Amino acid sequence: MNYLKSSYAYWDIIYLLPKRSRGYIKRCSAFTACITLSACASFSQDGGFAVVQQTATDKLHKNVQWIKSDVDRQQVNDRNKELLAQALTVDAAVQLALLNNKGLQASFDTLGIAESDLVQAGRMSNPGFSFSRLRRGDEVEFDRGISFNIARLIAMPLTSKMERHRFEQTQRQVMMEMLIMAAETRKAYFIAVAAEESVRYLQQVKRSAEAGAELAKRMKAAGNFNSLQEARELSFYSDAALNLARADQARIRSRERLIRLLGIDQFSEENTGVTSFKLPERLPDLPDVLTLTDVKTESDEEATVINKLVVQRLDVQAAKLNTQQLAESLGLNKVTRFINVLELGGVRNTSNQQATQHGYEVRLELPLFDWGTARTAKAEALYMQAVNQANQTALEARSEIREAYANYRASYDIARHYRDEVVPLKKRISQENQLRYNGMFISVFDLLADARSQITSVNSAIDALKDFWLAQADLEMSMTGKPSMISSQSTVISVSGSAAEH
Amino acid sequence: MTNRRHFLSGMGTMAGAVAGTIAAAVTGASVSKVAMAALPEPATQITPDTMPPLHPTTGRPYNPVVTLNGWTLPWRMNNGIKEFHLVAEPVVREMAPGFKAHLWGYNGQSPGPTIEVVEGDRVRIFVTNRLPEHTSVHWHGQRLPNGMDGVSGLTQPSIQPGKTFVYEFVARRPGTFMYHPHADEMVQMAMGMMGFWITHPKTKHPLIDEVDRDFVFLLNAYDIDPGAYTPKIMTMLDFNLWSWNSRIFPGIDPLVVRKNDKVRIRIGNLTMTNHPIHIHGHEFQVTGTDGGAIPKTARWPEVTTDIAVGQMRQIEFVANEEGDWAFHCHKSHHTMNAMGHTVPTMIGVDHAKVAKEITDLVPAYMAMGDSGMADMAQMQMPLPDNTAPMMTGDGPFGSVDMGGMFSVVKVRKNQAAGDYKDPGWYQHPKGTVAFEWVGALPEAKRLSPEGTQAAPENIKPEKEIEVQIRKPEGHMHHP
Lengths: 502, 479
Hints:
The complex is a heterodimer.
Chain A: H1 2-21, H2 24-38, H3 49-60, H4 70-84, H5 90-100, H6 102-121, E1 128-136, E2 139-147, H7 150-222, H8 227-262, H9 302-312, H10 314-336, E3 342-351, E4 357-364, H11 367-370, H12 373-438, H13 444-478
Antiparallel strand pairs in A: 1-2, 2-3, 3-4
Helix pairs in contact in A: 1-7, 1-10, 3-7, 4-5, 5-7, 6-7, 7-8, 7-10, 7-13, 9-12, 10-12, 12-13
Chain B: H1 12-18, H2 33-36, E1 66-67, E2 76-78, E3 81-96, E4 99-106, E5 115-118, E6 122-129, E7 138-140, E8 164-170, E9 175-180, H3 185-190, E10 195-200, E11 213-222, E12 241-244, E13 255-258, E14 261-269, E15 275-279, E16 284-289, E17 292-293, E18 301-302, E19 304-307, E20 312-319, E21 323-329, H4 352-361, H5 374-379, E22 392-395, E23 398-402, E24 406-412
Parallel strand pairs in B: 1-11, 3-6, 5-10, 11-14, 13-24
Antiparallel strand pairs in B: 2-3, 3-4, 6-8, 7-9, 9-10, 11-12, 14-20, 15-19, 15-21, 16-17, 16-18, 16-20, 21-24, 22-23
């Protein structure tokens, strides 16, 4: 508890301070200067950004840039053009977001703000100067005063330390925001690509239903269908059109969300000349082998493995540091509880009718409420609160990692099942149905209904594949911070019934 | 199972066919060799081809029949008793080239072999059950002791899998009969268990003419999903395969006769519906049923005779017109193979614009049926495995567009007596085949309708009728 010692050392200074302040403003400023010199904080070269950059490299394998100048901006624009030249990959999307997302730039700015606070904390605040002229009848009273926050001066080493914590916390927060943003971008990317794919498939469904509807109209015209049969085929078509409209709506939503995350808007002035991004036609294929298999939720070492991962998590680290910091502030309260309540100011009252008054005043807060055990109890409660919060954070982190991993495994199995079982089976069914159509066992309407059903299963397979990639993004995120775990809103498509069911 | 012992001489033509066994796709219960030791060796048929008539070499002489796509069961004489051995077992029956069915039958085939005896014969039939469930054999139409009637539970205990039962009776009445199980009958008949039985007259019979060719076959029906092998036994009416002796056109052999032959065809119906059997180019008389010969005074000429369920008919005619004469069930759906009964009519529907869109989605799609179904027989598109096309058959002038219960009576001047070999397509004398008219067509005269309807319609336009209901109030008095 070093700070305790140093605090007492400062306490001596505080004690002397009123005497010195009698030496009027000159001495004060001399003292201020002396204190300022004694403080260590100054602006760093990178504004604390290097750590963030390092994290981007380590965890995301991407570059991140804090755009501060036109040169920076130009560099980013060049890189944008490069990245946008071909169909967007998920890595390119994340890279674009890291470079262009203005929210992220804003959080980098928070870093700047936090650093200024840190530097500021290491500097003596400017002395306050007050002047008042009061008139009571003929009496005019001039009141001049100079004041500065002695408490702050005394607490400076401690507040500097706390500001350093805060700065580090901000750094962590910025990193967190960056990682979350990257994860969200990944997810938004997969959702957008899947949505585009879905639209294409639902266009096919619509075309199939359209063909059925057209044929049904002709059947009716030829007298082979009655109104009921025709109406049924037409209703498939109208359902299909509705599904397509919904899918298109989902596509636009997902694309706009991606635009917001990427910070790439072809319509914004800043991006003039930047073409809009082009999404690939298909989601990346399902990997043959899962790469993230170091989480074994079933094994005995589960706790060890997960705890190791938990420790890496930034939110857990932050919670831990928060408790330390609070412990420190608990200690700070113990030694500064007098100081905290003191505000010292030099006062000089002059009056045209009276001699100038010299003196000082000390304002005290009520020690009964804020000084004694009550204040300590609060600090302790705050501390315990932080401890409990840290506990909860760690527990949640463990659970989230487990859930994310289980979700990852399950969605992999589901996607693979779709790829290896459901879709090939549907394909076989279609082939067999084709043979049955050839043999006049089923009608062209059955064939079209089957085509719709096959397409729907392909669409479900796309959804499953998308869910896998989302789960993977969540799992990766769960190892560095809180994953959003929001599965995508699957486009719900009702399978148009088979014509044979009539 | 092989026939190692030739207990019958004169089987030369049969020998090749009797040896061997069906593919062991399905196995019945095994029967111990010891138990079989005293029994006649069971004969087995491996092909669905029409076998030549089996001329008797033992017992009383008779003029044998020809079983269409079938055969006659050999027997042995044992102290003056004719001994047959029927083995009820799962079989693989080729119903048409390229289409096999997993059926139950007797001695390697469905239907089972025809049993031919002579009036007054004492007949002993060993029935071995190699099915997975019990069975029995009912001798349809026979006069016999009640305990030999083969109704399981009623007149005998059923024959359990692996067991052999003996039926013995005197064939008292000459005529046309059949045999089939009377145990789990619905299933076993849906699976193809049935066979023909002929009792030839001992001496010249006043109502039973001697004929040159005597054909027999059973009408049966199956419901086998396209691509499947086993009949759906629960189907009651909506069968998709209408067969003669478990064969469908073009798998049914022609009935080959020599010009001026007196021909008898005996037909039994074990399907769930009636079949109007129709011959082209000749008139026949129904000369007998499973109830016996019909008095000559009660016969009348026909070209079609309806055979109801569970009935047998024997028809006779003199084949005095040369040619390839169609012979079929007159229910037109019965001369088709499997089809989708719910496929809508496409006639008159212009596919032109739609077809392209459909092909985008279903690349192998081809528009069919817009001018009828015959294009189906010509397109020859791939079908599900093990499926006979709905309509098919290549005749000398093109597609026959047939299936199911359809065959051809081939009458030829120079077909040798006793020769049942297919003589090929009929060579028509010059100028005796319908031909295309290429000359000018006179304007067809259309008659203006002269009739009027029998009565004017009395349906009046619907009008909203306001119904006022008077609720009973107080005490209602009759006037």
